[in-house]
């Protein structure tokens, strides 16, 4: 069920460390499912309990809607109804102090439990006029190549540090501080949620899509239903769902009931439901990429008109942007989509809440590092040099202690064979970073290129001729190299303009157990 837990928690610390209670059970510290509602004393008199459908049910709407709509961008029918989509300009509210763009496409997706409009009031007509809340906050990251996507779900019980925001209704300033993450949307609107996610992840967000109840049925029905699987008979009176064990194709109210079910499936928690909905999304993607929806103008026209009233987008998500997504979405099949929930643990100050684990920082760093557009050199017949074939000498030319060791550790983690670390250059530092190889090495440039690709910033061109170090020492990797490569030793000279090592763009291995993709068992 949707609930009202958007009330800000007390300012009990300067910096919360991560997620809350529902998340806690998955961390393994508490096998009992947390209560559906917090103590009565935590409730706000301004926010009466709201029954009905919860918003984490809409995990597939915004994602599928965005990608499907994108593939329709070249059709005249899309241009004809573009004006029917609700647009919102929030540029002034985001400010100028934002993370840099990287070439990736990042879309913030939220679900709204508004009961306004003919399609939504049937789910709680008595709640019309009470505003809107969200239990669903997701970030869709599409790689610069537009061939892979990662969907990050943020548990609604997460206690996080919220930046200063402004109420969209009263324009009153909302001071910064630790709050429930869903309070950002409930109190400060989509602009506050956007600012909060950017400040927590340092990932640049390009667009947002807000979805309401009727959108779910529109998309699922337009696809002709979505296949699901349940491992046992399901009887859920709260969700009004009855399913026999086995495979089903659900649409309409049955699809709604399936994604809203909670107590009868999994461990009864909201986070368990998130994982099930991530599996459902992969099923939606499979159906969307294999159906005839995109090639049938009549179905497209019907789909678009139905969806137009269900989605609200930012003012920059226009036809041209949709056309860009259209070209990339052709490569983005269900196989290329991975879904993951931000790593969490119980909030030490309140077991009804969650805080994010340190591993969350690794996940965000991997997303930020996804900045490369792969452009293979078709003219070259030589195989690419692998990281494991490259020996590296890392020299610190900044004058700051520890820089070479830190870089060496990150490079070693990616398979490079670091043989030495040391220092080079004057006390004032070497101005620019360089990748160097011995003049006599005929293949030095190719090996240097392999290293240059893993450095942040503009790609460096390897330079012939090495720099004399002031001192060096042998490097001892955490995992010893059993068979050292025989290629040339490449020199990395770290200068004052050093931007760091680009971390792998994949989800960190430590989080692989939490990933939902096309290989995940759909029978939940």
Automatic annotation (TrEMBL):
Signal peptide: none
Keywords linked to the UniProt accession: Membrane, Transmembrane, Transmembrane helix
Keyword Ribonucleoprotein belongs to the record: no
Residues covered by the Cell envelope-related transcriptional attenuator domain: 133-289
Listed name of the protein: LCP family protein required for cell wall assembly
Key word Signal present: no
Chain spans, region Disordered: 1-51
Domain LytR/CpsA/Psr regulator C-terminal: 389-498
UniProt cross-references to InterPro entries, sorted A to Z: LytR/CpsA/Psr_C (IPR027381), LytR/CpsA/Psr_CW_biosynth (IPR050922), LytR_CpsA_psr (IPR004474)
Biased composition (Basic and acidic residues): 1-15
Coiled coil: none
Family membership noted in the UniProt record: Belongs to the LytR/CpsA/Psr (LCP) family.
